[in-house]
């Protein structure tokens, strides 16, 4: 079986120095790799490089058997639809002036040249699965709670049947009970659809729940640990800060 994602010898530097050095790993369908580290260590930058939002790096990112930087813009856009990123602030992915239904259905309408109502009808089982009502999608983003917006985001992302999701602190802005619901939902959708995931967080507990393997990013070094090694390592952390 070929890997969904192959990251080889990835280096990223900003003006002030190395962000990370020699990041290498592979990810299979249905698998979750956690990326853990304290604030500012470079987790989001790594996520952006993987998904192609940041292209100025050394090394190779191969997705779906294709080296992303060697693709033409047109081919990159096709692959990009199969890689989705969930952000810490989901409301920023929604245009405040557009009804949620329009933001959610737009990518599928665009990629598959389909009508909004047809797309929305096809999404109803997914809407039910995330625990929202179809009528909520006729609201504007500011009329939904943080947890509801993150669920609507799941509908938007999964509507494109992605093979890879990069989730960058997707629940860190939610309160604890909503956080648990959204994490469970992400896990079950991922399992059902066999999606590969890079899950970024500074919360050791969330890492343990969501990830099969965990990589620690510290001072530019990227090290993949088994769960027992991670438990020992993270004992010295609280809320992403070293104790
Ligand atoms: N476009 C940029 N230009 C210059 N420096 C940047 C840029 N983006 C990020 N940085 C710097 O790179 C470092 C890593 O930032 P990044 O956002 O990847 O960290 P992070 O681990 O995701 O942090 P947090 O957990 O706080 O979100 C930081 O020092 C940041 O200031």
From TrEMBL:
Signal peptide boundaries: none
InterPro entries: AAA+_ATPase, ABC_transp_ATP-bind, ABC_transporter-like_ATP-bd, ABC_transporter-like_CS, P-loop_NTPase
Coiled coil (residue ranges): none
Entry similarity comment: Belongs to the ABC transporter superfamily.
UniProt GO MF annotations: ATP binding; ATP hydrolysis activity
UniProt keyword annotation of Isomerase present: no
The species this protein was found in: Methanolacinia petrolearia (strain DSM 11571 / OCM 486 / SEBR 4847)
Gene3D superfamilies tied to this protein: P-loop containing nucleotide triphosphate hydrolases (3.40.50.300)
Protein name (record): ABC transporter related protein
A biological process from GO: transmembrane transport
Keyword entries, A-Z: ATP-binding, Nucleotide-binding, Transport
A Pfam family annotated for this UniProt entry: ABC_tran
Recorded superkingdom: Archaea
């Amino acid at each position: 079986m070929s890997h969904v994602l192959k990251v080889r010898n990835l280096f990223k530097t900003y003006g002030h120095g190395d962000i990370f050095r020699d990041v290498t790993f592979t990810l299979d369908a249905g698998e979750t790799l956690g990326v853990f580290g304290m604030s500012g260590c470079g987790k989001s930058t790594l996520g952006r490089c993987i998904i192609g939002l940041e292209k100025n790096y050394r090394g190779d990112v191969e997705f779906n058997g294709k080296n992303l930087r060697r693709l033409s813009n047109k081919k990159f856009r096709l692959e990009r639809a199969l890689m989705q990123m969930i952000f810490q602030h989901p409301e920023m992915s929604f245009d405040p002036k557009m009804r949620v239904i329009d933001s959610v259905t737009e990518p599928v309408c665009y990629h598959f040249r389909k009508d909004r109502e047809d797309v929305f009808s096809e999404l109803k089982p997914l809407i039910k699965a995330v625990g929202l009502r179809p009528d909520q999608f006729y609201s504007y983003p500011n009329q939904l709670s943080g947890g509801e917006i993150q669920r609507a985001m799941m509908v938007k992302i999964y509507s494109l049947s992605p093979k890879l999701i990069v989730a960058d602190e997707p629940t860190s802005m939610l309160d604890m009970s909503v956080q648990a619901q959204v994490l469970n939902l992400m896990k079950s959708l991922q399992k059902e659809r066999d999606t590969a995931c890079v899950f970024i967080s500074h919360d050791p507990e969330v890492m343990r729940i969501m990830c099969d393997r965990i990589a620690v990013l510290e001072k530019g070094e990227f090290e993949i640990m088994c769960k027992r090694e991670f438990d020992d390592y993270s004992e010295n952390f609280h809320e992403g800060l070293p104790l």
